[in-house]
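@channel sequence for tomorrow's demo:
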Amino acid sequence: MFRCMVQDIEDPRRTEPAKDGLGEREMLEAWLEFHRTTLLLKAEEIDDQGRKARPVTTSKLSLHGLVRHMAEVERSWFRRVLQRESDAPYLWYDPNVEDSEMVPLDDADWDDDLAAWRAECNESRKAAADRNLDDTGVTRGGEPCSLRWIYVHMIEEYARHNGHADLIRELVDGTVGW
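structure tokens (generated this afternoon):
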């Protein structure tokens, strides 16, 4: 039996952006916040074992791992690229372990990792606040990259992983949502 995440639809923390009346930047920021909140909601009301579960045996994806991954992604695009902080340390990355933010999670602490993700989201908001959409940072390949591109990429990244989170959550406890 599947349960629907009613709070997904009515949760005041997650509001679908207006379909008109917003400028480009406001629209991009609103969609990014929508998707950040969606990821958070997918990992709520489930125990630690459920958040760490990897129900697709061929995948390293878990709800907990996705939150850690997105913290690294936030840090990479907003700090390393936009702010050009090439020396910003990784949170969990280990060059000797592929997808090291995703696994292993045995000793990972949800509250600490969630706090790290929230902190990276806040740092990202600060990094973008005083910049224009056409302002650029530099990718690790040396290419200029606009804030506009970063916003669009982050929306895409969250949307893709939120789809993963939807499927993971449904496989773990039958909860579905939009």
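heads up for whoever presents: Confidence is low (pLDDT under 50) at residues 1-9.
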